[in-house]
């Protein structure tokens, strides 16, 4: 496999990690707790959740965080594990090498963010989300439109690794309940085309 140069543009220095500061609501609860309960966002705004769907599964399947894993499941609006907050806090400061803005994707039920996998063919991970720390490993970008409003979702620091519904293409039987989300290089399959849409 050819070696590719990866670039991330950070417009200003990030805040120091481990400052010990903990943001709270006016009621004294942590923002992480309030966020998981969908009262307010990390930045004090009203939360609106999205769903993440793959062209290979169309409307029938949505991305979920289940038992510490990221997978596609039958779409159910009442299932909070299928609700995601698209946090654009670092979108002005951090871009990928094509200039697309960074985002974090945080699960409403768990408060965990999608985290880069260990490399190609490995499952996308979940990790506790701290909105006050710039952590490149939880930042993603959406590509240009790759047809019918679908886009690639890829690592901010390596746009050559994309969301991929493992064996979700027609040749492997398509998306099914529990299909794992991995990262893979672009192969133009429907299992690599994604939409982030409002519920």
TrEMBL record:
<dbReference type="InterPro" id="IPR040249">
    <property type="entry name" value="Ricin_B-like_lectin_EULS3-like"/>
</dbReference>
<dbReference type="InterPro" id="IPR035992">
    <property type="entry name" value="Ricin_B-like_lectins"/>
</dbReference>
<protein>
    <recommendedName>
        <fullName>PH domain-containing protein</fullName>
    </recommendedName>
</protein>
């Amino acid at each position: 496999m050819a070696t590719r140069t990866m670039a991330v543009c950070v417009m200003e220095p990030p805040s120091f990690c481990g400052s010990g500061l903990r943001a709270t609501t006016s009621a004294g609860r942590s923002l992480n707790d309030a966020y998981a309960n969908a009262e307010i966002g990390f930045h004090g705004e009203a939360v609106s959740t999205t769903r993440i769907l793959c062209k290979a599964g169309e409307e029938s399947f949505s991305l979920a965080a289940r038992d510490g894993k990221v997978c596609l499941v039958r779409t159910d609006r009442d299932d909070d594990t299928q609700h995601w907050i698209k946090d654009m806090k670092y979108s002005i400061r951090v871009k990928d090498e094509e200039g697309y803005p960074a985002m974090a994707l945080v699960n409403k039920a768990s408060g965990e963010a999608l985290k880069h996998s260990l490399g190609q063919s490995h499952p996308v991970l979940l990790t506790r989300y701290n909105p006050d720390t710039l952590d490149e490993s939880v930042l993603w970008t959406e590509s240009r439109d790759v047809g019918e409003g679908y886009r690639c979702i890829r690592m901010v620091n390596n746009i050559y690794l994309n969301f991929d519904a493992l064996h979700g293409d027609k040749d492997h039987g398509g998306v099914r309940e529990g299909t794992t989300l991995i990262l893979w290089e672009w192969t133009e399959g429907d299992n690599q085309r994604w939409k982030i849409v409002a519920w």
